[in-house]
């Protein structure tokens, strides 16, 4: 732990998200959105302009706190998520992360041979102190309104960027290494898994009340390769995570884009919830995994470009696909509403307002609590 003392925080006023993560009954289906602090909000764009760059925004505690709270000030959503980037960990490994306007993330140094792999090691968490300071600052600024989610990229997803040196359309370089030098790929993934676990645990110690692993590129793998190069290392991360901190249970969520094919195996992970993209069938997912995991998802983000009445109809389809959640004491199937991937920067904010209202309204109706 790199923080100097344990921070104290206000008591939580809305624990609906955490209860749903833990498969406990809730009065309505809680919701939040991946990339909810982002470019679709004009106030975010104004803060981003002040910061001068994406990294200027992410590494400034005050700015990161400000943009994390912006969607909560607009919409009655049920969780905040730390404003940061999944590539902070490899950046701390010395790969030199930068964001060119309109081009996405790039690394100055890619990892493509034995010499580059040999240099990798779990980074000193002091290099990521700006993240943990932001977690503490955001948690204090929330003042108990809703829980704060911390996150990291999965070991495989981080490896994709590290080997490719940027985003990729075909994953040619990382898959070439995976198939031709699996020993090097496994070495990268071992280091990444240990780094991710330490990173998430330090976020928890700084104030995160739940953590999420984004396996954004797990779905690009072939069956068999997914289990060996992605799932196994996500499992390694989860095995090292704090399950409780200062007496509070810390739920963990795993999201694999394109991962519905492997739900029966993901159901066995030591996490509390599984995130699903829009290709997954929630009814089937509940049958496969709902007996042990909360499910999160899975509206197609592009639904938000349709008129509000269509958004409401699509929300009802998603809620009905999951079915009536658990009610009463004990534990049972629960649902956290989310998009099937990150919200588009072009989304009209008023359509998001319609989304949130529809989720809360109709999920209450399903429970007979209107």
Q: Short summary of the structure?
A:
The protein has 370 residues and is α/β, with parallel strands linked by helices. The protein has 15 helices and eleven strands. The chain starts with 15 loop residues before the first helix and ends with a helix.
Give a description of the structure.
The longest helix has 25 residues. The strands form 3 sheets. This protein has a 7-stranded parallel sheet. The protein has a two-stranded antiparallel sheet with strand order 2-3. It is globular and about 60 Å long. It has a single domain, classed as TIM Barrel (Alpha-Beta Barrel), CATH 3.20.20. The chain contains 15 helices and 11 strands. The mean pLDDT is 95. The protein is α/β, with parallel strands linked by helices. Strand 6 and strand 7 form a beta hairpin.
Count all strands and give the number: 11
Instruction: Give the overall shape.
Output: globular
Number of helices: 15
Structural class: alpha/beta
Q: Kindly report how far apart the N and C termini lie.
A: 45 Å
Portion of residues in beta strands equals: 5-15%
CATH topology: TIM Barrel
Helix amount, in percent?
40-55%
How many domains? The number is 1
Pathway: Porphyrin-containing compound metabolism; protoporphyrin-IX biosynthesis; coproporphyrinogen-III from 5-aminolevulinate: step 4/4
Enzyme class: lyase
Family: Belongs to the uroporphyrinogen decarboxylase family.
EC number: 4.1.1.37
